[in-house]
Design brief:
2 domains; 27% helix; binds iron/sulfur cluster; binds flavin-adenine dinucleotide; 8 helices
Length: 349
């Protein structure tokens, strides 16, 4: 029996899977293309996480340490899987660093790519320095200072534009990125904590602070922090004669055109399929769904199975997900993979 599970990707999903497989007494080989483990929250230096309020570097850092200090886990940093042969129960992977790994099951925890706001040029990113993304504001919060990149001043007025690169048929993004309404409400409150005199506006199509996040983020941001929500359809971001940014569009509640000046405009960027997915599909022989995320075989009796027997997929590799869900996916995939080590013939069950 081969007692090793190969896990590709060391974000929240892969780290959770690795801890799960190890706790069942099996070995893990974890392959991460970056030199640093932790996935998007660490690589993009997120600030305080929704919903725990813990700093990403501490919360995800704890997940990283648990796996790094685990004798059952072997880590290949800065590496990818170049080739995979074999079948469920006995795969052989050749890594880009030259190593060869035999594994009974394979986990794809390869996550997502942040939407590149350059693909929404009419909203000013790449043209105006003071149009930034939520990940940039996360980094400002983590550094303890909200500032306009153009001159370092504290912005008097900030707006956050929701659904940038999500729910947008014109640019082929027909999905909701699930977490950005809540993350934006949280960021708006963090901006107010660091710069209490700054006015913060959120422009939205719909607010989707899912599950239990409605009062903690949507209502609290308005009632305690005076964040102003405007239901609008934004047409463009330009620069006014005084150099400030002008957000132009239509207030869709009163059905009137709006042109409002801001010092800092923030794009709440969505979660795109991992740019590596076409390569991953080829190397691992798995299918992609129509948007480009990795496809799954069947939801109810073969949880987290990809379209290839013995290979599982979860977390943001499947669809936009929050970290709590990714951790659950990881544990569920660990159970499937460990089950396969015992009885590979059941891998397709
Ligand atoms: C701006 C923003 C803020 C967010 N804030 C929160 C929050 O506060 N709370 C919350 O719950 N969620 C938040 N999220 C969502 C969160 O980022 C995701 O839920 C989480 O990162 C997904 O984890 P993952 O491990 O599936 O994927 P990722 O975090 O994307 O990790 C995937 C890992 O796989 C690696 N990888 C990719 N391709 C390969 C390959 N071919 N070979 C080897 N390795 C590979 C990557 O380098 C990466 O380390 C936020 C998202 C955004 C966009
Ligand atoms: S979570 Fe909110 S901001 Fe993100 S895509 Fe969905 S509706 Fe838009």
């Amino acid at each position: 029996m081969i007692d090793t599970v190969l896990i590709v990707g060391a974000g929240p999903t892969g780290l959770s899977t690795a801890a799960g497989v190890s706790s069942a007494g099996r070995k893990v080989v974890l392959v991460e293309k970056e030199k640093v483990l932790g996935g998007a929250p660490i690589l993009s230096r997120y600030a305080k996480l929704v919903p725990s309020g813990e700093w990403a570097k501490d919360a995800i850092g704890r997940m990283v340490k648990r796996v790094e200090s685990d004798a059952r886990v072997t880590i290949h940093r800065g590496a990818k899987v170049a080739r995979l042969t074999g079948d469920a129960g006995d795969f052989t992977a050749t890594l880009s660093d030259g190593a060869e790994v035999r594994a009974g099951a394979v986990i794809l925890a390869t996550g997502f790519t942040h939407f590149d706001s350059i693909n929404k040029p009419e909203w000013g990113f790449g043209t105006f320095e003071d149009v930034v993304t939520t990940t940039q504001v996360e980094q400002m919060v983590a550094a303890g200072k909200i500032a306009c990149p153009s001159d370092g001043r504290t912005p008097a007025r900030v707006c956050i534009l929701l659904c940038v690169g999500s729910r947008d048929r014109q640019i082929g993004r027909e999905w909701c990125s699930k977490i950005c309404c809540t993350v934006s409400a949280n960021l708006a409150m963090e901006i107010k904590e660091l710069a209490p005199k700054t006015d913060v506006y959120i422009y939205y199509m719909d607010i989707r602070t899912f599950g239990l996040y409605e009062d903690k983020y949507y209502w609290r941001s308005q009632e305690e922090f005076r964040i102003k929500y405007v239901k609008a359809r934004i047409a463009e971001v330009t620069r006014g004669p005084d150099g400030r940014l002008l957000v132009k569009g239509e207030d869709t509640l009163v059905k009137r055109p709006i042109v409002i000046p801001f010092d800092l405009v923030v794009h709440a960027i969505g979660m795109d399929p991992n740019l590596d997915n076409p390569e991953i599909a080829k190397v691992f022989g798995v299918g992609l769904e129509k948007h480009g995320f990795i496809d799954r075989a069947e939801h109810y009796t073969s949880s987290f199975a990809s379209t290839r027997r013995g290979i599982y997929v979860g977390g943001a590799a499947l669809a936009p997900e929050d970290i709590d869900s990714c951790i659950s996916h990881g544990l569920a995939m660990a159970m499937r993979a460990v089950g396969d080590l015992h009885a590979p013939a059941q891998a397709a069950a």
